[in-house]
Amino acid sequence: MQRAIELAAKGQGKTNPNPLVGAVIVKDGRIIGEGFHERVGGHHAEVNALLNAKESVEGADLYVTLEPCSHYGRTPPCVDRMIESGIKRVWIGIKDSNPLVAGKGIKKLIDAGIFVREGVLAKACRKQNEVFLKYITEEKPYVILKAGMSLDGKVATASGESQWITCEASRAHVHQLRNNYMGIMVGINTVITDNPLLTCRKSGGRNPIRIIVDSRLRIPINSRVLHGQNESQTIIATTHLADPEKIEELQDMGVKIFITKSVNGKVNLESLMTFLGKSGIDSVLLEGGPTFNYSALAAGIVDKVMIYTAPILIGGMASKTAVEGEGIKRLADAIRLDEISCRPIDEDLLIEGYIHKNGGD
């Protein structure tokens, strides 16, 4: 199953909004076939493993990270192919949360006389498909808040200098994330201050859909995110406060405009998540500034936090921190993280955690 998880990871950035799935066929203690879901519309992992098998799979075991499908979608049901192949036993990481599957694939295998065991390395399989599992059940994107900061929590110096706080390896890792996730989101202040492209600079990588939150449509027409719509689509979320003529001008440039009712003059982020989900965007990497980061956290749209911490100290009361905005007044109301993990990326430290959804204790 660990090998199946490794194979599934090869589909990152190519299968959205489908899940990442890997499969391994074992016979007489030998791996005789491997496969993974390579792209949307292509064969599923189990079928690829069967097609790649070096010999007959009759009587063999098949390990797969996610429950095989039992319905007709872009491809025929995988379980039918598995049953026909003569597979004897199937070991599954996690059950598919898709209502079209949700246990039906397992039942069909069992009804065909095939031994099935679910829950093999379930935690690792669930983590690998955390994006899919949220999107398929809630139809809203999985949101990852990413920030790079100094050891004392600063994202810029007092003069505003921020390039580069983190090391080159950390920046390369961020571009891998831009490849993996479908959307990248920033607030208008980031666009005005940094004029970023918000593309993926990983060799062979996929550009994310650029999402700009701009309640009054202050975005300069010459902003780099507005150009090259054929290479990377841009969506601007705004409110009724926006200038109708500017909306039309941006739409003529190929930019997609989403207008939502404002919340205290700002874009309703919850409504934006619903819109993005219905638009087929399963995941968003949030690379906003300190104020926007707080707004996203306060709105409850963030699922996961990834902080790249550099071994430097900046100091200064005027130096920006990773999260600012209105801030939390009582420690009991602080936004807490669960399942914290830390790992080095060259000289930096990447800290990851999941938003505690039920508030503080």
What does this structure look like?
This protein is an alpha/beta fold and 361 residues long. The protein has eleven helices and 16 strands. Strands 10-9-8-7-13-6-14-16-15 form a nine-stranded mixed beta sheet. Strands 2-1-3-4-5 form a five-stranded mixed beta sheet. Helix 9 (244-252) links the parallel strand 9 (234-238) and strand 10. Helix 3 packs parallel to helix 4 (104-111). It is globular and about 65 Å long. The chain starts with a helix and ends in a 6-residue tail after the last strand.
Distance between the termini: 37 Å
Structural class: alpha/beta
The radius of gyration over CA amounts to 23 Å
Number of helices: 11
What oligomeric state do these chains adopt?
single chain
Write the element-wise H/E pattern from the N-terminal end onward: HEEHEHEHEHHEHEHEEHEEEHEHEEE
Strand content: 15-25%
Percent helix, as a range, is 25-40%
How is the main sheet built?
9 strands, mixed
Residue-averaged pLDDT: 93
Highlighted features:
361 residues, 16 strands, five-stranded mixed sheet, 11 helices, alpha/beta, nine-stranded mixed sheet
Summary?
The protein is an alpha/beta fold.
Task: Give the topology, please.
Elements: H1 2-8, E1 22-27, E2 30-36, H2 45-51, E3 61-66, H3 78-85, E4 89-94, H4 104-111, E5 115-118, H5 122-128, H6 130-138, E6 142-150, H7 168-180, E7 183-187, H8 188-194, E8 209-213, E9 234-238, H9 244-252, E10 256-259, E11 262-263, E12 266-267, H10 269-278, E13 283-286, H11 290-299, E14 304-310, E15 337-345, E16 348-355
Parallel strand pairs: 3-4, 4-5, 6-13, 6-14, 7-8, 7-13, 8-9, 9-10
Antiparallel strand pairs: 1-2, 1-3, 11-12, 14-16, 15-16
Helix pairs in contact: 3-4
